[in-house]
Amino acid sequence: MKTLRKFGLISIIILFVSSLLTGCIVPSSSPDETNQTDGEEFSGTITMYAGTYSPNRVLNANQKPATELKKLAEEYENETGIKIEFIKGLPADQDYMTWVRTKASGGQLPDIIWSQWYDANTALAKGTLTDLSEYLEQPNPYVENKPWNELLNRQIISDTKSADGSTYVINGDYVGTATYFNKEAFEKAGIKEMPTTWSEFIEACQKLKDAGYTPFAWNLASTPTGTDRITWLTRLFFTNFFADEYDELRYTENEGITNQDQVIAIKKGVFGPENEKWMAIWPILKDFSQYWQPDFTGGDSNGQGTMLAFLTGEVGMYFDGSWASQQIKSANPDFEWSSFKNPFPDHATSEFATEFDSSAAIGGPSASFQYAVPTKKANNSLTPAKEKAIIDWLMYITTPEHNEAIVNELGENVPTVAGAKPIEELSGLSDLANQPLQSVFGGINLEKKELDAIYRAFQGYILGDTTLEEFAKVADTEMEKTADSLIQQNNWDLSEYLEE
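-> structure tokens emitted (500 positions)
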């Protein structure tokens, strides 16, 4: 068996949006594994909860099976003699994080788990996952011994560190949102370049309208998809408008803006109708609504209404996630299409616009290729030799070639390892992972009932049933009420932040 050339550990697991697997058993370690000493070379099995990219995940209708990790595991075993065993998923009614915490408390987590960076940094008890920082500068033997951190995305490494500087998750993909467009419609409308700013985007909408197309498919129905999409749009604007204040809005000095930070901003009048900057967004969105399809408040066909409208060929553009590319491809529309990153506000749009490109505010390194390594405390089968083997395997699957193959097989996300390229339909999103991981929600969705109430008021404003002032009054009432509720529930003493 070839001598492993890398040291390491990788930590945590938390599940992504979809595709839960069934039945979950972590094999107990064999005697030859647990008895290995520090100086020995590891031989045996590495267990891995691979989530969406697992070769044994349970598939929903129209989902593609993931096979690349299995193929790479077989190649790796042939080269090193080490077997990679993929853990089966949980039953649909079992909460993943509860399972992780329970297994960790008994020292029974797999050797590698899937986890979002923010869960790794905040949701799991300290000591559950291994800090991988010391391994990032070591050479990857599978890419000409280049330092591992030169292959992994440096922006993501920087933005996803914990408050104490630890790195718990190795990232290999990025979930993005995009503007999907009809190439034929753009050509007929005389649109030769993709819009990058909001003013260019609105100009494209007008050209599409003049050419006889519905410029944009939008969902303003009272459905989860409808409320979700409005938070996409407001996030695009809030993140840009408040970009120069981002660090100041991190009142509690966490990596990102937490719910507690948002409550403080509400109480200080930074988020809410008292602030002209916060209010400036809503008239811009109402102006945008003139380009939506006539039935934009209708049902959303299980979240697919805007896509179905786009597939008719009568719509020029619509917003969706990077995962939609494969669904559109499967539908085989009668026109060529592609996507570009969402346009961000500019000075021609509003006096409050900044130079910050907020395209990356909707999405992030929180997709399916996020793997962590539990500590000895959470995985009692771990030995120093096994730890080295785990890191070696993680280096093996984060070469540009292997990362690209794993991520592009499903075509739902963008690979982030340097040199790996996304599928053609997502090529316009390839640089999102290199932008700062920065997002401002504006205090409108701290709780579901708050967002629902503000969303209903927004619907009335867009439809002309209520005025901007009436909308603002509802938003102010709901945000203050929610802020007070969270302060009480969490026993927050915010006096130090609210003193003049």
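The longest strand covers residues 173-182.
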